[in-house]
What we know:
This protein folds into 4 domains: 3-52; 81-390; 391-492; 502-586, no CATH class. It has 23 helices and no strands. It has helices at residues 3-20, 27-50, 57-67, 69-97, 103-124, 131-153, 161-181, 185-206, 211-230, 235-254, 263-287, 294-316, 322-340, 343-348, 351-371, 374-395, 398-415, 417-426, 438-451, 468-494, 503-524, 534-555, 558-585. The longest helix is centred in the N-terminal third of the chain and has 29 residues, at 69-97. The termini are far apart.
Amino acid sequence: MTGEEFKKVQSNRVCAIICSTPDGIAVEDRVAALESRLAAVEQRLNALETGQPAESSSAAGALGPELGEGFVSNASTLIGRILLIFGGAYFLRAITDFQFVPTAIGIFFGATYALFWLFMAYRKGDNEDQRASAMFYGGASVFLMLPLLVEASTRFALLSGQQGIVAVALFCALALLVALARNLQSLGWLVIAGGIATAFVVLNATRAAVPVPAFLTLLGLGSLWAVYLRDWVGPQWLGALGADAGVVILILLSTSDQWSVEPLAAFLLSAALLVAYLASFAVRSHVRGESVGIFETFQAVLAVGIVFWAAGIAAEAGQVTFATVGTSCLVLGACAYSLAFTPGTRSARGRNFYFHSTLGLALVVAGTALVMSPTMAAGTWSLMALAMAWFSGRFGRVALSLQCTFLLLAAGVGSGILTTGLEALAGDASAPWPALIPWHAVIALTTVACLFIPVAQHSDRWGVLSGIPQLIVLALSVWEVGGLIVVYLAPSLADAGSANANPAILAALRTSVLSAASVTLALSSRFKRWPEARWLVYPVLLLVGVKLLLEDFPNGQPASLFVALAVVGSALLLVAKLLSRDKAKE
């Protein structure tokens, strides 16, 4: 078909289309559509006649985006605007330096100029297509305002150190609100980083020791809540780092003679940091219904450590008493425990329960250690251990069984019974012998009593590790009870602690006590309450074997060695028989 014939066919098609078009459509629209189609037909015919491929209008239109000309154009536009913005700032600086306007007025104009661009960021951020421009405008405002406030506090001395940090705080709060309102995470990062850097510059230049850490604490909390409200990732770490660093620097300055900082101020600010963060975590977990994470755990531990460090320095300076600090810890610990045992948190069995209960335990233990004497504190921890064991069985929480174990361990260390037991089981016979203290017997009996209180021993979350708390309590019972038996019998049987001490008899006594402990453990493992006891049987016997080589044989006599070997051999036979029966029963 020739070109002329093809044109005739297409003309006939056009006439058919005109005739079949509904009357509801305007004639001008039909004519325009037909002209477009005829132009496309002529373009194809010309391409066929000349032998060249037809140029697609859509391909030509798509060429611009493929080459990235739109992106380059937008980037160059934004960069050009930023350069003009900073050019305007330098113009204001120039007329101020040449005293065309007074310095105070020039600073005011500069601050107004920076705030104008922050307003532009707020305005542009409402439009999804203008978010890049909003970020640029907000960043320009931060870079203009913060150095301006530093110079106003240092070079021009228009603001004192305290006034300067207040101005920085107000601007950072306003800029962070803009970032939150328009969900500009990059601007939020810039405000937090810029605020921290500016605060330390102001601290170094003006020696505003207390206002700077206070501002950094507020900035850290602001970054935390920005993350909570907008689900940003990461800014809370930077804010907390600045807050913690500010308080730590204040604590260090309180120990320096070159700075007039009272240790009490450092302690109060560190306490405010801890309470503010813990309150925020509580709102997150119990008001917003969200789970705490790694950041909350890390920051809580770090903040507690900073508070105790500051409290120690303030106590040495005589500005605070340990009783005051301990009472505060007890109050916070009680609050944390109450949060852990709310119905929602307790039934959820999630991270919030572990976080608040563990935090409560740590604060209560620290508080009792500061308020009470070591003996009274150990007794209190023993009673708390009994309560935790009961709660563990009542609510089916292995975590509470672990807290019971921790409290028993703290009671053993605080009362000194673990040290006494170690000296009795491994100390020198001629060394001063430890005295039998009634409180030690109470602690040991409490430890054994916790074994008879049903605790949670199975958990899908813990798996095999569910038996670890009971295993530790069994080991503590052997250590404490065995040590007290040796403490009581050694002076009468082996003259321990005197110049006439008999190391052979003492070695045989120790071997007998440990062998009896292994048999007791093997017997206990036959009951459903103490299946973990079998894990300790052979480690105790291995310890007895090592002891025979290191103590009994070098110091022993025929009679003492006879007793030791007979006891150990009998223990091995009984243990093997008991464990084999237990295995056959299973």
